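Batch job 17 of 40 flagged for manual review because the log was empty.
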Amino acid sequence: MKIKSVKAAIVEGNFDWMLIRIDTDEGLTGFGECYSSHYSAEIKQFVSTLSKELLGQSPYNIARLTHKMSLGNTSGYGVNAISGIEMALWDLVGKALDQPIHVLLGGSHRDEVKIYADCHAGESISSLETYGGDYESYTPEAYAKNAKNIERKGYSLLKFDFYPGFPGPGNKKIVSPLSKADLKHCAEIVACVRGSIKDETGLALDLGGGYTVTDAIRLGKIFEPFNLEWMEDPVPGNNIDAFAQVTNNTSTPVMCSYTQLRNTRQLCRELIVKQAARILAIDFGNIGGLQEGRKITDLAELYFIPIATHNIASPVGTIAAAQVSSTMPNFVACENHSLAVPWWENLIKEKQVIQKGYYKLNQKPGLGIELDEKEVVKHLKEGDNFF
């Protein structure tokens, strides 16, 4: 069996979801997904360039092909492209061998994978245009109402955004350096959310990497009474020592999810070895692929660092992330960032793949899903198609 073609197409969801399709001379097809966000055009070009390395090759040699593509592409958008291609190879090989991806990766530690809900703020994100907004969407009451509604859907772990620049009272932006009023407002939001959901429901915050070390520590301190699951990216991810300062000066667990800056195991090594974060998030759509991501989680396990899978994907990337997450002993939860996209699950023919905050492993080969071509085509970026 030889690779005949490698194609990419962009689905316009609440982020750009770049799907990868690999076809073979024996009629088998594999699908994957790149983490693309705002950089889909650049990553798509990398996919086109890298595809030339794969044509005529055996898809079974995933490690060899990934290594070949990685030469000269050890960071940046090239790694995103490699990630989606490698994911599609696993789907393809799984279908050829009639085995699910999690079995090919060594088998699962759990039959159900916990999914946590990224709630954004007072409203969840339905499109790229719905970021920002006025204060009414960012009041403590709006956050709390959204939390309660999503909890009712069965999710037992919720995450909210505290990105710098979100509007506070009087529509004044909350940015570093934080005033006492800013800190008080942040505490009021968390208190309101915490009071609106069950005691056993977990709560996490994403700080977007835009605060100073001093402000990050202050935030960590004011959040301590609320027993957060984690405080994500309180400072930029390109300074490991700064991350460590925050981690070591608050009992609020600090997460590093800056895999877009540290998207290979070589770049993640320092973060893990220095134990600069209490919890790590990796995105299989930009970490170099499923196998590369597992190598990072294995290194993290040596330092007793748990993993919560970062994921802003379509059902393709989400199910791939969940399948790999099932193989990780140090796994916590996998993200779902598409609650406000009503047609998200319509992209595949399988239904109710997430039930009450869990993805139940199926035993179908590869990813175990089939794309609904008509639905995918409806949401493709203009000019895109790979069917």
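Reviewer: the log was empty due to a logging misconfiguration, but the result itself is present. The longest strand covers residues 3-12. Unflagging and moving on to job 18.
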